[in-house]
Design a protein that fits this description.
- Helices cover 47% and strands 16% of the residues.
- Helix 1 packs antiparallel against helix 2, helix 2 packs across helix 3 and helix 6 crosses helix 8.
- It is globular.
- The mean pLDDT is 88.
- 40% of the residues are buried.
- The protein has 236 residues and is α/β, with parallel strands linked by helices.
- The protein contains eight helices and seven strands.
- The protein has one domain: Glycerol-3-phosphate (1)-acyltransferase, CATH 3.40.1130.10.
- The protein starts with a helix and ends with a helix.
């Protein structure tokens, strides 16, 4: 019963914050207020849910630099955990279907985030170009879930090339991000929120300016995936 009450409060809180985010997106195109609100929203969501967050590796992140954060993904709580802990302004790459959700999806489309159509290669490449522009001109970092969708088991799925194609063409370093514990708090397909602790680890930045070929991209992709898997094992 308590878990369902939490869900109701989170839905109402999300509606309120989404409405404010719509206003901020229109009135403040620097998006400073939007990113501030995203942290407020994430902190509130975690508090309502009774979830603690532990962070390590922040010394690997320079707040004044631009990065591509590449994370594993197994729960709806991954995004609040990362919005709350990433110390730079980070634009999230989200799938087209989310953009159709009233208020919540609308504010993401109007905000500094990047919508991607995974079923249309041409449109997906346009999203990659937009991400490059956001990083180069606005100096926002970008957050991608390299698996493309949430893992049902909590195990790290094969990575997709999008993040690494972006890295090859944008030239900004990648920071592997490891999330542990979110799959136990709210697994994919479940609606009951369990109390627990989310562990977020930011690994050392990996330079990408050496990437010249598809082979380089794939090797980097496997390197980042192996780092994430190893960090999960160590956390376990």
């Amino acid at each position: 019963m308590l878990s369902y009450l939490k869900l109701i409060f989170i839905v109402l809180y999300t509606i309120l914050c989404s409405f404010l985010a719509l206003i901020f997106s229109i009135t403040d195109r620097s998006f400073k207020s939007y990113f501030w609100l995203s942290r407020v929203f994430s902190k509130g969501t975690l508090l309502i849910s009774g979830i603690k967050v532990e962070v390590s590796g922040l010394e690997n992140v320079d707040k004044d630099s631009v990065y591509i954060f590449v994370s594993n993904h197994s729960s709806q709580f991954d995004i609040p955990a990362l919005q709350y802990t990433i110390p730079t302004s980070a634009s999230i790459v989200f799938k087209k279907e989310i953009g159709k959700i009233p208020l919540f999806g609308w504010q993401m489309r109007l905000g500094p985030y990047i919508m991607i159509d995974r079923q249309n290669v041409e449109e997906a490449l346009k999203s990659i170009e937009k991400a490059k522009m956001v990083m180069s001109q606005k100096k926002f970092s970008v957050l991608l879930f390299a698996e493309g969708t949430r893992s049902k088991t909590g195990e790290v799925q094969p990575f997709k090339r999008g993040a690494f194609y972006l890295a090859a063409h944008a030239g900004f370093p990648i920071i592997p991000v490891t999330l542990s514990g979110t799959d136990k708090i709210l697994p994919k397909g479940k609606f009951k929120i369990k109390k627990g602790t989310i562990h977020v680890h930011f690994d050392k930045a990996i330079a990408t300016d050496y990437i010249k070929s598809r082979k380089d991209e794939i090797e980097l992709m496997e390197k980042v995936r192996n780092i994430v898997i190893q960090n999960i094992k160590e956390e376990g």
